[in-house]
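Entry 14. Ran structure prediction on the chain below.
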Amino acid sequence: MANAFARAALFAVALLVATAGLGLWIGDLHAATDPAVLRWGTVHRLSGMFTALVVLLVNSVSVTYFIGTGRWCREVAETYRLAPALVERSRRLKRAAFPFAVVGMLSMVGIVALGGAADPGGGMAERSREWATWHLVGGIGLAAVIAWCFQAQLQPIRDQHDLIDEIMADVRRERVARGLDVPA
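Output, structure tokens:
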């Protein structure tokens, strides 16, 4: 899971960088009259939406992973009467990762909100030029926060995987002690 999460997070960060690069390359849409430049503005908005969905998805995968594996740890520990400390460790790991997932998601919402405010064709057209700088600075800063949040979630995911391996080893020992079949 850790490798899959790392790859997905890297893909999401690459999308953030590419979308930011596209926005910087386009320049000031408020002064643009060339239809080709305006089309690139549309591409930037669409790539921003796609990037936002990917960032939210990657953070959601982390949250879902901890919810599912945490429940699995609890049920297996109860079934085989394993040490309650294993379940508590799983809870601590979930609590360590969850805030970073939420901050990453909210940061993406912030970038999108700033982009919407900066859109010259949006509902705030008369003030959108003022918001363009906020979108640029906030977008770059919040993209860095998102990358940091992905990095912060990676170690708890690795630790949860190690905990699952430890629980499986305990289950094998318990099954052998009870005279039950032990799958290879």
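Residues 2-176 form one domain. Will compare against last week's run tomorrow.
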